[in-house]
Amino acid sequence: MTALGASIALINATVVPVSSDPIPHGVVLIQDGRIAAVGADVVVPPGVPIIDAAEKWVLPGFIEAHGHVGIHEEANGPAGDDTNEMTAPNTAGVRAIDAIDIDDEGFRDALSGGVTAVVVKPGSGNVIGGQTVAIKTWGGRIIDEQVISAAVSVKSALGENPKRVYGEKKQLPSTRLGVAYVIREAFVEAQNYVEARAAAAAEGSPFARDLNKETLARVLSGELVWDQHVHRHDDIATALRLADEFGYRLVINHGTDAAKIADVLAERDIPIIYGPMFTSRSKVELRDRGIPNLVALAAAGVRVAITTDHPVVPINFLVHQASFAVKEGLPHQTALEALTVNPAAFLGLDDRVGSLRVGLDGDVVVWSGDPLDVNARAERVFIAGVEVYHLVDGRGVTVERSARFGE
At 280, is the pLDDT very low, low, confident or very high (cuts 50, 70, 90)? Predict the structure, then answer.
């Protein structure tokens, strides 16, 4: 395993930066863990290892924008499920990073599907579920060494999930009215907290910190995105209303029913992390779920990303959801953007990941062909220029975790 900041050149490939046009017989040069050059006539410096990727496709690593890998572990039962802290409807101060098991099998699955980054989020049992974290899917000795950004977003849920959880406990919230109220009350208290904190600072007075309010203050300031779990179109309208009231950056998560108000979302430029798509209609909110809804949203001009909601759908099937969307009419380029540049932009990660662009992290995947062809396979995966996965005799082999990628 090479050290952090590896250098490598991939040559003779069909290079698909996503943020720009494909390059036949292209070269991707990675130096010191960052993309140094992309093009057809790149000169590879002496001493840089070269991989001939003739007849292969080279793309940026995919981004799972809404997953629970590491906090809802596979095959570990209740012991591995730390997705929801459902002891209070507002747990804004909890952090997903504090529950991630670096050895969850989901991380290995991610590599086999060409996924090199994931935004790990608390679940949707709470009205306000807590803080998310963006991480690489391999490479650290501990999870902290895989962090791309610890300050990404706060997860919140509208609709049936928190209503059911707390309704069964005979406490607030048990209705949609109550769910919206919890959010509004929490933000009003956060606004009051910010004012009191500023006054105390001006006076040099002691001030008692509150982790929930501190977190929501970062949402109000625009530092953190508001990741809104929501399915039904009426709940999406509530999400818009709340965002207008408090002025935070809203990203819709799931958006199963969003196509019904696609024009509204397009006019307001509200992005959607859509999915998961390979699921049954297991609750009333999913009654109108369908892959064509994603196609309709994109056709209306809504910026979209795609999620597996891992482990609801295995994270390595992220690309297959995009493939099936193309089959239903989603443009090929839009599908690739939904896996790369769009989620990076929605969640403020586009200075690190999401495309093959000079200066970004050297997170690159070599595919046997067009990744949106269901027969294509991720053959080699590089994170920061370090090879972390290699397909050998039809089986994926991951490289030992020993290098640091979180800096």
Answer: confident
DSSP label at 382? E
Nearest residue to 270 (alpha-carbon basis) of 295, 297, 234:
297
Name the residue with tokens 């010191």: 32
The arrangement of strands across the sheet holding 225-230 comes to 128-131, 153-157, 225-230, 250-254, 272-274, 304-306
Tell me the two tokens of residue 373: 């062809």
Say how many C-beta atoms besides its own lie within 10 A of residue 245's C-beta: 12
Across the range 106-132, mean pLDDT stands at 98
pTM over 0.85: yes
Distance CA 263, CA 269 (A): 10
**62-352: which CATH architecture?**
Alpha-Beta Barrel (3.20)
Long-range Cβ contact pairs of 263-266 (< 8 A, separation 24 or more): 263/300, 264/237, 264/240, 265/236, 265/297, 265/300, 265/302, 266/300, 266/301, 266/302
Mean pLDDT computed over every residue of the chain? 95
List Cβ neighbours of 341 (8 Å cut-off, separation of 6 or more).
18, 19, 350, 354, 355
Task: Tell me the angle at which helices 176-203 and 160-168 cross, rounded to the nearest 10 degrees.
Answer: 90
Residue extents of the structural domains in the chain: 1-60+354-407, 62-352
Residue 203 CB partners (closer than 8 Å, separation 6+): none
The predicted-structure confidence for 306-343, as pLDDT tens digits, reads as follows 999 999 999 999 999 999 999 999 999 999 999 999 99
Question: Where does residue 348 fall: left (phi above 0), alpha (psi -120 to 50 degrees), or beta otherwise?
Answer: left
- Secondary structure letter of residue 72 according to DSSP: B
Residue spans of alpha helices (H) in 260-386: 262-268, 291-299, 318-327, 332-339, 341-346
- Class for the domain spanning 1-60+354-407: mainly beta
